[in-house]
Amino acid sequence: MKIKHxxxxxxxxxxxxxxxxxxxxxxxxxxxxxxxxSMMTEEEANQVTHLTLTGKINAVDFKHLRDExxxxxxxxxxNASISMYSGKEGTYPDKFYIYMPNFVPxxxxxxxxxxxxxxxxxxxxxMVGPFGEYPDMTRYALPTMCQQCENAPCVSVCPTGxxxxxxxxxxxLVDKEKCIGCHYCFFACPFGVPQYTDAGxxxxxxxxxxxxxxGREPYCVxxxxxxxxxxxxxxxxxxxxxxxxxxxxxxxPTGPSFFLT
Length: 261
Fold this sequence. Notes:
Blueprint: E1 4-8, E2 25-30, H1 42-47, E3 50-57, H2 59-68, E4 74-76, E5 80-82, E6 85-87, E7 97-99, E8 124-133, E9 136-144, H3 153-157, E10 163-165, E11 172-174, H4 184-188, E12 195-197, E13 200-202, H5 219-223, E14 229-233, H6 234-243, E15 247-248, E16 258-260
Parallel strand pairs: 1-16, 2-3, 3-4, 3-5
Antiparallel strand pairs: 1-14, 6-7, 8-9, 10-11, 12-13, 15-16
């Protein structure tokens, strides 16, 4: 089976979305973090398909973006500042949580489908930048989930076989019954993907453990409101990635199954 491939469209280029007569584009300047939803009615929020935000936002705003903007397709926060927030009104369901500044909050675009423990992140999103010169500056969000490397170092260094590639799905998985918590995989992974709990190493498994059928889109891809994440067979994804000018990370030493643009 061909290795699965993720295509990350960081630029959110307009040619990735089909233009329709139903497009509703809005731009808002948020002067105070956590107040985005107060700037419009529920009906107006549901109509927005393309949203550009500037100013200051936080985890409260991301929660509203996730739960209440039902038709949102494109979200541009390149020129918005993400502020720190502490409390229970953020994206982490019903938990007091500290959301650090300049990071997309945990569960900003997805719910807790995998029962991930507090402090554990299968899909870390890092803000990269800023670039340019003031006032023409920008930055972008980079998801750093498991890269499903063709030459997965976590598999090759594991002394017990706990990290392995599944023959049927070609996805790198973890057998927690075999994991001894040696951390070899953590030090071998160039992307810092392995997470550790009392049960052993844990990481993104393309949501197979959460009931997603092999070959179907993981929850992060299904939930992404900006259509920035794509999932499929390597050769099927390549034309779309090349058309968007993506970088093929398979050329890296570990062979990450990733296109990045």
